[in-house]
Specification:
354 residues, 2 domains, five-stranded mixed β-sheet
């Protein structure tokens, strides 16, 4: 979200107080952290990026929550910090919070390394990302620029110990229940408290959440994301409110999920159309999104890579320059068959929760 959102408060069906705190994670880019008073548990869901401005806006939100409650609320009062997923605009703030609170920090197992061993994770992922960009046909100069931006965005954070992981805690912390919904991030979870659901970045307004190829990062990719949407849709039935990581409350998540599926099918069709003749991922990315600058240029490249991976896995794309790959890392794909609109997305599975 690039427009300044507002502080909001809600009450769950059992009387827990929820305060939506807008934090300026990066200049003119906002995310939500949620301070929840559930009985005697003051809990923070997500923590901003950890930049100075992000921390300032988080503190301002605590001050507003204290005014609404009629007594001060401080970081030291927190019992838990629950991270919805391992993207820096949601977990980076624990760098500053760790020194001022004894709250127990929790993440899903698949995001543990990103949070607790950040430098190791960066060292592993960066060369893998560079190799993919070579395959995708990104020029040497553009690739160097993208890698510099990638390193810079990760530099505001350093590893912070994690106190517990969700699967080990049976996906529950007191009255908070978790659901693993990978795709946007490997360890992404949704969190339910009474009739309120915190969905992180699984469902957001206006855009389809970022994707990256599963071959680059396990448990990401379009297929995982689509399965998670179906799982979440069933799990969140009956919720009075769905609170996302960047937007105003989602009052009708089923409608928004349907819109996301339509948009994904549209992007997949556009991607296929870009490979009527042999082409690279980088070129098709420009066809889909135009000329985009800054860090967003890396995000849309990864997103296009995820679309191509999904289509290639299903046999709808093939490599057109297979005989050249011993001499060049650049892969050119082309359409291998016609795909009906009704087959672009997999059939939705029926999930039953007991």
């Amino acid at each position: 979200m690039t427009t300044s959102p507002s502080f909001q408060s809600f009450t769950t069906s059992r009387g827990a107080r929820v305060f939506a705190i807008p934090v300026e994670a990066f200049p003119s880019f906002y995310a939500y952290a949620y301070l929840v008073q559930a009985g005697d548990l003051p809990v923070l869901i997500d923590a901003g990026s950890g930049s100075e401005r992000s921390h300032e806006t988080l503190q301002a939100g605590f001050d507003q929550a204290g005014a609404a409650l009629g007594h001060p609320v401080t970081f030291a009062d927190l019992t838990h910090i629950l991270i919805t997923h391992g993207h820096i605009d949601h977990f980076g703030g624990i760098v500053r919070l760790r020194d001022v609170t004894k709250a127990r920090i929790g993440v899903h197992e698949l995001d543990y390394q990103t949070v607790a061993h950040h430098e190791e994770r960066l060292a592993v992922v960066q060369p893998r990302l560079e190799a993919f960009m070579k395959q995708w046909g990104v020029s040497d100069e553009a690739r160097a620029d993208l890698l510099r931006m990638y390193r810079f965005t990760k530099s505001v954070y350093h590893s912070v110990p994690v106190d517990f992981t969700y699967e080990a805690a049976d996906m529950r912390v007191g009255p908070f229940e978790m659901l693993h919904v990978p795709g946007h991030c490997p360890g992404h979870v949704a969190i339910k408290l009474d009739d309120v659901v915190f969905c992180g970045d699984l469902v957001v307004e206006g855009v389809t959440p970022h994707q990256s190829p599963e071959e680059l990062t396990p448990f990401m990719g379009v297929n995982h994301y689509l399965e998670s949407l179906s799982l979440f849709e069933r799990w969140s039935e009956g919720a009075a409110l769905v609170l996302s990581g960047h937007d105003a409350p989602i009052l009708n998540p089923q409608v928004r999920i349907a819109e996301i599926r339509v948009n994904l099918a549209h992007r997949l069709r556009q991607t296929l159309d870009g490979f009527v003749e042999p082409n690279t991922v980088a070129n098709v990315c420009k066809l889909l999104y135009g000329e985009i600058g800054g860090y967003n240029s890396l995000l849309v490249l990864e997103k296009t890579g995820a679309y191509v991976e999904y289509l290639y896995q299903r046999g709808w794309l093939e490599i057109s320059n297979l005989g050249e790959l011993e001499d060049t890392p650049v892969i050119r794909y082309r359409c291998s068959q016609s795909v009906p609109e009704t087959e672009l997305l997999p059939k939705e599975r029926a999930y039953v929760f007991v």
